[in-house]
Amino acid sequence: MKNIVLLGAPGAGKGTQAALIANEYNIPHISTGDIFRKNIKEGTELGKLAKSYIDAGQLVPDSLVIDLVADRLRQDDAKNGYILDGFPRTIAQAEALDKVADISVVIDIELPFETIIERLGGRLVCMCGETSHVSLLGDSKTCPKCGAEMYVREDDKPETVRARLEIYERQTAPLVEYYGKKGNMVTVDATVGTIEKVFEQVKKVLE
Ligand code: AP5
Ligand code: MG
Q1: Is residue 148 part of a domain?
Q2: Cβ distance 62 to 93 under 8 Å?
Q3: With a 6 A CB cut-off, is 132 part of the ligand 1 pocket?
Q4: Helices H, strands E: what count in the chain?
Q5: What is the pLDDT of residues 7-44, one digit of tens each?
Q6: In degrees to the nearest 10, what's the CA dihedral of 180, 79, 27, 60?
Q7: Domain-embedded: residue 191
Q8: Which residue among 15, 70, 119, 181 has its CA within the 20 to 30 Å range from the CA of 153?
Q9: 55 HSE (CA, 13 A, CB side)
């Protein structure tokens, strides 16, 4: 059983790698960002509460995230492991997670901010969950997985990306030290190249 946490700045490639890990090891990909975006789309109470924070590039308050994840981890499909993408993001969230879960490994995906800005500048996402990039799709915006039209995420505007990176530095980067001290964290250098090359590094960590 592997309970995996993926750490990393916005746009470092967490979602891309988490989807590959979930597929390879047949464990659920739990992304708090995806959960919020689904709730926003469906107009739920949680979606309404989260929307203003997400659109501004701020973190949703811990009180709205922690119970949500604890509930999700109790579901049946998470019994044989899971991959957490985008949680925890604050020390308070990490401490709360320690109370309800036994984390096998934390993978910290590292990428310089300049590269992140390029990647988020061209990211396209699909309602089906697929993520891609204009450099991969050319002029087409058609989702390679389901054929729907892909779109730019609301919080990928340049000024919002800057806000997200600042928040990452202030609130999430301290987790690198937090998990570093615990001794279960491995760093993956995402400058090695393609999505496949990064995934090879990730698999080495997991095997
Ligand atoms: P969330 O959805 O988690 O966003 P994020 O952390 O900002 O990360 P991203 O999804 O933007 O990037 P990623 O690392 O997944 O990169 P990706 O794989 O897409 O959170 C959104 C918001 O929700 C937060 O700002 C916050 O408001 C709220 N929230 C979520 N969780 C929360 C929590 N725990 N507490 C409080 N608030 C929370 O890749 C990016 C691009 O690069 C893509 O175009 C991709 O195709 C491309 N790419 C990936 N890998 C490569 C590669 N190796 N080579 C070339 N291109 C690549
Ligand atoms: Mg993501």
Answers
A1: no
A2: yes
A3: yes
A4: 10, 7
A5: 999 999 999 999 999 999 999 999 999 999 999 999 99
A6: -60
A7: yes
A8: 70
A9: 7
| β-strands 105-110, 185-189 pairing | parallel
For residue range 48-72, what is the model confidence (pLDDT) as tens digits? Answer: 999 999 999 999 999 999 999 999 9
Residue 201 lies in a domain: yes
Asked if 146 and 132 count as a contact pair (C-beta separation under 8 A), the reply is no
The CA 10 to ligand 1 mean position distance, Å, reads 5
Which residues, 6 or more positions from 134, have their beta carbon under 8 angstroms from its beta carbon? 122, 124
Closest ligand 1 atom to Cα of 198: 53
User: What is the total count of domains within the chain?
Assistant: 1
Atom of ligand 1 nearest to the CA of 54: 27
Q: The tokens of 32 are what?
A: 């708090």
Nearest-CA residue for ligand 1 atom 12 is 11
- How far is Cα 149 from Cα 155, in angstroms, rounded to an integer? 18
Residue 1 has pLDDT above 80, yes or no: no
Token pair listed for 179: 């998990």
Report yes or no on 43 lying in a domain: no
Q: What is the 16 CA–ligand 2 centroid distance (Å)?
A: 7
Is residue 28 in contact with ligand 1, taking CB distance under 6 Å? no
Indicate if ligand 1 lies below 6 Å from the C-beta of 172. Answer: no
Under 8 Å between Cβ of 143 and 128: yes
Range of the domain at 18: 2-27+80-112+172-206
Q: What is the CATH number of the domain that holds 6?
A: 3.40.50.300
